[in-house]
Specification:
InterPro entries: GCL_bact_plant, GCS2, Gln_synth/guanido_kin_cat_dom. Keywords: ATP-binding, Ligase, Nucleotide-binding. It comes from Halomonas fontilapidosi. The chain is α+β, with helices and mostly antiparallel strands. The chain is built from 17 helices and 15 strands. Helix 6 packs across helix 14.
């Protein structure tokens, strides 16, 4: 029988020696028709099913749910579908950024080949620029059906999160409980800096939303029980046991049984541990049920067998690699991590949460005037961002991981360096182009915002 101690032991069991810590990337993107810029439907050879089938030519193996093709698997990677057909690469965990880059470049090459063959486009934005929520063609997965029914009960934008958002997520390992605590605190506290710098979702419903990331706004109104800032992470005594208790208190979505998901939305995981759910009388959860439940916690950073950083909008390839480099330099070099922790020393959960709620409208152009008092030891958001960037660069220098040509991992930071130097996030660039070059029409965006 599963109890809190066993759940604690499961997290402890994922601790790794430093030399075995890896980097993983999960990249989501929208697929659309080049002909009319409409989003691809799920069904048929001209839809998402057809794209998945075509990807099999590259060695991917099909994954089905109740007879429908809903994903692909590789040796250590997978391609899955988000609720309205957003395509997600869950990449292989790599020991360095060079492996990450090679895999993502190959993924883009495969998609580019299919794009020419099938007449489709691949859009790397955090939020659908023009497609209505009501027009979404939902993927036939039982888990998503359950979430669709549940989301309107807990937030006003949960369905928008499911149907119209895309993210870039990064995975990092931890070595011990203390190491997890430091990395979690740092990732949670510093996440707003790169969320502003790499905001990439200024449009919604065919118009300028006036925000730099409408996706950031949507997540604030999705489900307060499982999204946003996790305050206890900032405590000095935070540990695995605290996270287990928090996770057990988050309402469930479902459990997988007989090839489909059983609706348990809103039910208590603690009740299931006691065998008290009337849908499953006397049945207690399996370890897989627990792993699935951890995947339903959607804070800006979440803990499972690794730390998953979830705050950023979907980005094009070069910026995706820059973000991965930023966090690798901070989290996987001890000296950089210690110095970055000094930058967030005294970070107050209430002030961090307030900053998080301001993020959707913040841009880099005014970042030198944005106060971060109570969050960072810096005079402004820009100063904190520049300090964190410099520490990440130094961390990558000390890692000294080079590819076959001798290129250091610091090379991947250059696109982010340029953005910080120009004080111009992707969202601010798109907005400027819409006003100055595209005459208020978003059609050009589909040519320029591709993955």
């Amino acid at each position: 029988m599963i109890d809190a101690q066993r759940l604690y032991d499961d997290l402890v069991g994922h601790c790794k020696p430093p030399e075995q810590c890896l980097i993983g990337v999960e990249h989501e993107a929208f697929l659309f028709s080049r002909h009319d810029h409409r989003r691809l439907p799920y069904a048929g050879p001209a839809g998402i099913e057809g794209v998945l089938t075509a990807l099999e030519r590259f060695g991917w193996q099909p994954q089905h749910e109740q007879g429908r093709l809903v994903g692909l698997s590789g040796d250590a990677a997978s391609i899955t579908l988000e609720p309205a057909g957003q395509l997600e690469l869950s990449g292989t965990p790599w020991p360095d950024l060079h492996g990450v880059a090679a895999e993502m470049i190959e993924h883009r090459r495969q998609l580019a080949e299919l794009a020419d063959d099938l007449g489709l486009g691949v859009l790397a934005l955090g939020f659908a620029p023009a497609w209505a929520r009501e027009a979404a063609d939902w993927v036939p997965k039982s888990r998503y059906r359950i979430m669709r029914d549940y989301m309107p009960r807990v937030g006003v934008h949960g369905l928008d999160m499911m149907a119209r958002s895309c993210s870039l997520q990064l995975n990092f390992d931890y070595c011990s409980e203390a190491d997890m605590r430091e990395k979690y605190r740092l990732a949670m506290a510093l996440q707003p800096l790169v969320m502003v710098a790499l905001a990439n979702a200024p449009f919604a419903d065919g118009e300028d939303s006036t925000l730099t990331s409408y996706r950031h706004y949507v997540w604030l109104h999705t489900d307060s029980a499982r999204c946003g800032v996790l305050p206890e992470v900032l405590r000095d005594d935070f540990g695995f046991a605290d996270y287990v208790q928090r996770a057990m208190d988050v309402p469930m979505y479902s459990v997988a049984r007989d090839g489909a998901h059983l609706d348990l939305a809103g039910r208590s995981f603690r009740d299931m541990m006691r065998g008290e759910l009337h849908e499953l009388p006397g049945e207690t959860p399996t370890q897989q049920d627990w792993a699935d439940h951890l995947n339903t916690l959607m804070h800006d950073v979440r803990l499972k067998g690794h730390l998953e950083l979830r705050g950023n909008d979907s980005l094009p390839l070069e910026l995706s690699l820059s973000l991965a480099a930023f966090w690798t330099g901070l989290l996987y070099d001890e000296r950089a991590r210690r110095q970055a922790l000094a930058l967030v020393e005294g970070c107050d959960a209430a002030h961090l949460n307030l900053l998080r709620h301001r993020l959707p409208g913040l841009g880099l152009a005014d970042s030198h005037r944005i106060s971060v008092s109570g969050v960072y030891r810096a005079a402004s958001l820009l100063e904190a961002l520049e300090a964190a960037f410099d520490l990440a660069h130094q961390g990558l220098e000390r890692r000294a991981r080079r590819d076959a040509s001798g290129k250091n991992e610091t090379a991947y930071l250059e696109p982010l360096r340029r953005i910080i130097g120009r004080r111009f996030s992707p969202a601010e660039r798109w907005r400027g182009q819409l006003q100055r070059e595209w005459r208020g029409h978003l059609g050009a965006l589909y040519r320029h915002a591709g993955f």
